[in-house]
Design brief:
Elements: H1 2-80, H2 85-91, H3 99-102, H4 108-128, H5 133-139, H6 159-180, H7 196-208, H8 213-219, H9 235-239, H10 244-263
Helix pairs in contact: 1-4, 4-6, 6-7, 7-10
Length: 264
Amino acid sequence: MKFQVLLATVFAVVFCSIVVSATTEIEQAKTSALSISQSSYAAFEDQKRSLRSSKMAEVGNEKTEERGAWKWVKVRYWLEAEKSDEHVRKALKLNGMDEATMKFQKNYKYYEYFAKKSLEYRIGRWLGKDMTTWNVWKELGLHTKITKRDDIDSIAHTPEFKIYSRYVNDFDHNMIQTVKVGYNVPSLIISRGASDAEMYARVKIMAIAQRENKYAQMLLGMTDPWKRRTTLLDKKALREHDDYPWYQLFKILKKQGQAEKAAV
């Protein structure tokens, strides 16, 4: 009888242990499942937020790109419409700023492109009309600033003179290429009545560019008008030409430039 009581007691203890263990495992499983569920939910929410942020960033980038593209369209329009520098600066909210200040503005790249292309367009139009260097000098208003060669240093660093210098080089290059392919140069390649300052500047720019003598003579208009204006004058006809002194000055300045270059 005592043995049976002992056996029943042991059985009860073991049964209780099993029940407690099972209950604990169930509770742990519930806790783990809840933890996993909360973690998954948090990850899901993070992913949603990330996607929303990504979409917002993409929309922002698209709007920025659209605004940028539209500004480039405006720049092309301003160029075609020949809008003034002042108009473009105002449109880009850069008016009243100097060059150094403008460079730190987000719209500066549009103005910089406009300024560069505007100059190219302007020079291109002059070249298309075969405008003489004297006419461009006047177009730039340089004739109102100086008339004598001794005053050139006072305008040498101005934007207008730099544009003039570029035009002289582009004009000369075009005329030389025209002759090389066998075509005639314009009948009026150099204007009569140009000021001393303009002619000196024109000749000096040719000398700096080290133009060949035959092309310098042609560019100064010392050619036979009855022979397609590509046949150079020589001897007496050359010496008697009105612009012969300028041709002589060109050769002197060219030689000086060569000597200075050799001495460096």
